[in-house]
C-alpha cells in the first residue's frame, strides 16, 4: 500500500469560496478588532490563508452543529447584529488549553455587550468549545445596563463612525483597536502598513 500526503487545495478553495460572502453594511463583528482589516476586506479583499480557512470552517461547523437554526439579525444605529442563537448565546471554538482559560477576552465581551444592546438583553451565555481535548465550557455574563450602554456609545458607535469615515474617504483607519496577535494571522498583513 502506498499512502501519499497531499495538500488538498481544492477543498481549501471550496471553503474559501463559501466563506467569501459579501455583506452589506457594517456588522458588529467588523468593529470588534482591527478596523483596518475590515476596511481592506471591503475595498481590497484578499483570499484567506489555508490556515484561516480551516479555523473558520471549524468554528462555523461547531456553531452550526450546536445551533442549526437561523440566526436572529437586527440593525441598530447602522450596525448589523446577528447572534449565534436566539436566546443570547455566543459560540466560540478554540485551540487554547482549558487550563487557566480566561473567557473575558475583550473582543468577545465587546460583542456580547453589543448584542445585549441590540436585542434588549442584560445576560449573555458564552459557550467555548475546546478542540483538543474535545470539551466545552459555558459562562453566563450578567452586564449592567450602564456597561451595555457605555460599550455601545463609547466603543461601537465610535468605531462605526471611524470605519464609515475611512470607507467614505478612501483612507484606511489608524490601527488602534487591533490585538498584537491579529497581524500574524491576517491575510492582509502583506500590504497593510501598520
What does this structure look like?
By secondary structure, this protein is α/β, with parallel strands linked by helices. It has a single domain, classed as Lambda Exonuclease, Chain A, CATH 3.90.320.10. The protein has seven helices and six strands. It has helices spanning 9-19, 28-31, 35-43, 50-66, 106-119, 145-169, 180-184, and strands spanning 26-27, 73-76, 79-82, 89-94, 123-130, 135-142. It has a three-stranded mixed β-sheet with strand order 1-3-2. Strands 4-5-6 form a three-stranded mixed β-sheet. A hairpin with a 2-residue loop joins strand 2 (73-76) and strand 3. Helix 1 crosses helix 4 (50-66). The model has no long low-confidence stretch (mean pLDDT 88).
Number of strands: 6
CATH architecture call: Alpha-Beta Complex
For the terminal residues, how far apart are their CA atoms? 50 Å
- Average pLDDT confidence is 88
Rg calc: 18 Å
**Main sheet strand line-up:** 1-3-2
Unreliable residue runs:
none
Q: What is the general shape?
A: globular
SSE order: HEHHHEEEHEEHH
Hey, roughly how much beta strand do the residues contain? 15-25%
Helical fraction: 40-55%
CATH class bucket: Alpha Beta
Short summary:
The chain has helices at residues 9-19, 28-31, 35-43, 50-66, 106-119, 145-169, 180-184; strands spanning 26-27, 73-76, 79-82, 89-94, 123-130, 135-142.
How would you summarize the topology of this molecule?
Elements: H1 9-19, E1 26-27, H2 28-31, H3 35-43, H4 50-66, E2 73-76, E3 79-82, E4 89-94, H5 106-119, E5 123-130, E6 135-142, H6 145-169, H7 180-184
Parallel strand pairs: 1-3, 4-5
Antiparallel strand pairs: 2-3, 5-6
Helix pairs in contact: 1-4, 3-6, 5-6
